[in-house]
Amino acid sequence: MASALNDKNVQRAANCFKQALSIPEHLESFVAVRSTYMLSKVLFQLGASDAARSWYEKALKRATDEGEQEYLAKLKLVYALYAEQNDQEVRKSLHILDDMELWTETADLSREIAEYYKNKEDLETAAYYFTHGGFAKYNVLNSALPPLLSFLSLKRA
After folding, report:
1. Which domains can be identified in the chain, with CATH numbers?
2. 63: number of Cβ within 10 Å
C-alpha cells in the first residue's frame, strides 16, 4: 500500500513538473533547470526510462549552459543510479555535493538512494547511504547552530 501511494505521489509530481514546464515563463525562468532535473528524476523513479532520458538531456544541457554545478552533480547522480546502476559514479556525484556543503540536499538524496538499494535488497549499500545521510544531517544541524546561538544571544542583550 505504501509503495502504491508513493507511486501515485511520484506520478502526481511528474504531472505537476510537466505542467510547469509547459508554461513559457517558467521554462525561461531561473528555476527551470530545477524543474527539468526533478521531472527527469521522477520519470526515472516511475520506470519511464525513455522520457526520463529525454528530460535528463534537456536538463543537462540547461545546467551546462547556465553553469549550474549543483544540478550537474545531481543529474549525473540520478543518471548513474537509475540508468547506469553505477554506484561509483553515484558516490562521486554525492561527494561533489558534499564538497559544495549542500547538506540538506545531500541528506535527502542519501536517504532516497538508501531506499532505492534497500528495495533492491542490497542492504550493505543501503546502509552506506543511510549512514551518509546521517552525516549530512549532522552537518545541517552543525551549520545551523552558530547562527542560531548568535541570534539567541542578540535577543537576550
Report:
1. 1-99 (1.25.40.10), 101-157 (no CATH)
2. 22
**Which residue is associated with the grid cell 544531517?**
137
Contacts of 14 (CB under 8 A, 6+ apart): 39, 42, 43, 46, 48
**At CA 103, angle to CA 109 and CA 55, rounded to 5?**
40
* pTM of the predicted protein model: 0.81
144's grid cell = 545551523
pLDDT in tens, 20-42: 767 677 567 778 888 889 989 99
Contact 32, 21 (CB under 8 A): yes
Residue 106 is which amino acid? T
Residues 6+ apart with CB under 8 A from 92: 76, 80
106 alpha-carbon distance from chain centroid: 8
**What tens digit of pLDDT does each residue of 117-149 get?**
999 999 999 999 999 999 999 988 888 776 656
